[in-house]
Amino acid sequence: MVKIGNIEVGDFPIILAPMENITDQPFRKICKRFGADLMFTEFISSEGLIRDAQKSVKKLNISEEERPIGIQIFGHNIDFMSKAAQMAEESNPDFIDLNFGCPVKKVVSKGAGAAMLKDIPKLINITKAVIKSTKLPVTVKTRLGWDVNSKIITPDFTERLQDIGVKALSIHARTKTQLYKGISDWTLIGKIKNNQRLKIPVFGNGDIDSPEKALLMKNKYNVDGIMIGRASIGYPWIFNEIKYFFKNNKLAEPPDINERVKVCKEHLYASIDLKGERRAINEIRKHYHNYFKSYKNFKRFKLRLYEATELEDLLLIFDDILLNYS
Q1: What residues contact residue 165 under an 8 Å CB cut-off, 6+ apart?
Q2: Beta-carbon neighbour count of residue 244 at 10 Å?
Q3: Which of 22, 102, 144, 173 is catalytic?
Q4: Nearest in space to 204 (alpha carbons), one of 161, 256, 238, 168
Q5: Is the pLDDT score of 150 beyond 70?
Q6: β-pairing verdict for 44-45 and 69-74
Q7: Residue 21 neighbours by CB distance under 10 Å
Q8: Structural domains of the chain sorted by starting position, each given as residue range(s) with its CATH number in brackets
Q9: 102 catalytic per annotation
Q10: Of 62, 190, 206, which Cα lies nearest the Cα of 136?
Q11: pLDDT tens for residues 41-64?
Q12: What is the pTM of this model?
């Protein structure tokens, strides 16, 4: 059984990666129902929490059915990160996760996220300060390094994180400059995991978009769990499909059109309850492609889904989709 501190997260956890404007509470609950063993909130700005910014504070909301779950924070100011961790602890998550890997310009330009990979002493000091400020286990999510010439997430570096009290590592197998382009390189993750001195769990992330690839990464690199990001967007079934493949060595039947429409509508309604109709309709558009991926001649419906701005219109489109593909 893999543990983060004293929290059990499964024999080989299939993890929902934190993604901005994707892994909100409605989507997390759906992913949990379809097999996600462990999940994180969207990343939360430490400065936003300190300023009591509404968008940041709302992201602290978690529910019992989402456990085990970590609240992920980011920032570059030691005091702010410590205080943000204390604020996050009040929401009673299972652990606090530190984002040292986000490559997005608006985060990196402020010295946070993957920018921390250019200032390792500060990264260590922030991590120490957060660990000291909370009673919860603290985990770290990061990347291989800033670029191909500075892959600093080495066995020695990860030992330092373990030695100061980090309880688990999630590593995206790309550098900051790669963003999400090219092919991820898990070689370094394998070296880190096979370091005999490292005792904390290591979770691999990057390009896992099928059950077959999940099994390959599990067997080849000996990681303690795998993290699913983009492949889960609009396709929460991937978690159970991976587990089915591990157990039966064959692919599960994909969801039919009735199931896809049902879950997509459930997702939409839950988002409306949380955020209001306009914002929910705008944000769920990111999920439509995968909810209805592989259906022939679907482009005309996809365009209608993207263009719809009212719930009533979307419900009519869903009815048309069922009529055409049932």
Answers
A1: 127, 128, 131, 138
A2: 17
A3: 102
A4: 168
A5: no
A6: parallel
A7: 11
A8: 3-248 (3.20.20.70), 257-325 (1.10.1200.80)
A9: yes
A10: 62
A11: 999 999 999 898 888 888 999 999
A12: 0.94
The Cα 20–Cα 42 span in angstroms is 5
Site of tokens 């077959």? 212
| CB contact burial 139-170 (16+ within 10 A = b; e otherwise) | bbbbbbbbeeeebbbeeebbbebbeeebbbbb
Residue indicated by tokens 């030695």:
163
**Tokens matching residue 119:** 């200032």
In order of 51, 196, 257, the CA distances from 235 in angstroms are: 35, 36, 13
51, 75 Cβ separation under 8 angstroms: no
**Sign of the Cα pseudo-torsion (91, 285, 204, 141, in order):** negative
Predicted confidence at residue 176, as pLDDT, reads 86
Q: What beta strand segments (E) does 101-233 contain?
A: 138-143, 169-172, 202-205, 225-228
Determine phi and psi for 193, rounding to 5 degrees.
-65, -35
Query: Within 13 Å of residue 103, how many CA atoms lie on the same side as its CB?
Result: 15
Q: Tokens 């984002």 appear where?
A: 99
44-45 and 225-228 strand pairing: unpaired
| CB-facing half-sphere around the CA of 298: CA atoms within 13 A | 17
Query: What confidence tier does 186 reach under pLDDT thresholds 50, 70, 90?
Result: very high
Whole-number Cα distances in Å, 25 to 16, 140, 229: 12, 21, 15
Number of H helices, E strands in the chain: 14, 11
pLDDT of 152 above 70? no
Contact in structure between 257 and 322 (CB atoms under 8 Å): yes
What stretch of H or E contains 52? none
Instruction: Please spell the DSSP secondary structure of 173-206, one letter per residue.
Output: SS-TTTTT-S----HHHHHHHT-TT--S-EEEES
Phi, psi of 264, deg, nearest 5: -60, -45
